[in-house]
Amino acid sequence: MPRLNTTMPDSYGLSLSVYVPTASDVNPVETGDLLTWSTTDGYSAVPAVAGDPLQLRAKHPVTDPLEPLGCYVYGFSRVERLPYAGTAPALGASVENDGAGGVRAAAAANGTRVLYVDTAAGLVDVAMP
What was the pLDDT predicted at 12? Predict the structure, then answer.
C-alpha cells in the first residue's frame, strides 16, 4: 500500500529549539530551510550552504535572531546534560567519558556534539548519536 502522507509526525525523531543569529527581515529563515550547527553560541544554527551536512530543518519561519526556531534534528537521538571537570569542551566538540562520572573533550570526533556549555555549573549539553 503506498504511503499517503510523506511527512513524518512530529513525535518521531529529535526536535529542538535553536536560535539563528543571522535571521532578519532581509535574511528570513523559512519553513523547511536546511540549517547547520553554529559554534558561536549555544543552541544556535546558521543557514546551510552547498556541501554542508544535513543537520537541521526549520519547522516554521523566523525573522528575529532572538526568536526560538523549532527544528527537526538529523543524526542525533537525544540531548543529555552531563558534568565535566577541567577544561570545558568547546561548542561543536565531541566528548568522551572522563572515568570519573563525567565527560571531557574527545581527541577525535565520535558522533557526539556539544550544544551548550555552562562553565559556572560545570555542565555541558551533548547531542548523542
Answer: 75
